[in-house]
Amino acid sequence: MDIKAAGEPSGLASMIRNEIYSVDKNLKIDDISAVSALVNDNLSQERAIATLAGFFSLLSLSLASIGLYGLMSYSVNQRTPEVGVRMALGARTGDIQRMILGDTLLMLTAGILVGLLGAFAATRAITSLLYGVTPMDWVSVVAATVVIAGACIAAGLLPARRAALVDPMTALRCE
Known about the structure:
Layout: H1 13-23, H2 35-42, H3 44-78, H4 80-88, H5 93-125, H6 138-164, H7 168-173
Helix pairs in contact: 3-6, 5-6
């Protein structure tokens, strides 16, 4: 049986029990609870899964950022002699930074294209499992792309700055 109440329904439980017992003392009342409490109880597992998904997505973003930074640092370190030659031939620090960041943006563009194609293919494969969500939620796709792009650019900035400050003689001796 459903009872609608204006205001807080928790205070009405004893009054509802008394009214039911006044009609028939043999009726058994198991539980009186608000619909909002029942909904919260039923959604607790979904909330836990959403929280875990958020945590693991942040963890994966952190790992991807660390990996990008490591890749960019290694790539710049391998190009130290080249940077030294460029600096010895008159390249300015801004030129070196643009060169390194250009490589970063090239990798970023390739990664975004491959990622978008993979996401598009994956959402087509699981369309039947989605309810109330379009296969390509563009807001989420754009937000994820912007976050990954920011992490990639941040991962390329420090190695680019470090490469631009290399002493040409030291860089040429690295070989």
